[in-house]
Amino acid sequence: MRRLPRNVARLISDKVDQLTGDPESLTNQVKKLTDHPGYRLRISDCGGAYQ
Questions:
Q1: pLDDT tens over the chain, length 51 residues
Q2: Which residues have C-beta within 8 Å of that of residue 15, sequence separation ≥ 6?
Q3: pTM score of the predicted model
Q4: Tag placement on the chain: N or C end, fewer CB within 10 Å?
């Protein structure tokens, strides 16, 4: 995350914190991966996968 602009890094950090605090709050931005175990979290132009 060091290479990302500060505002994007902050947005990602805030969304991950929100996800860990209340997983149901981001149901529209979380999708189950089809080819791999886990889920995808979409944030602006960035995304990440987690289990």
A1: 788 889 888 988 888 888 888 877 777 688 888 988 988 888 877 667 777
A2: 26, 29, 41, 43
A3: 0.68
A4: C
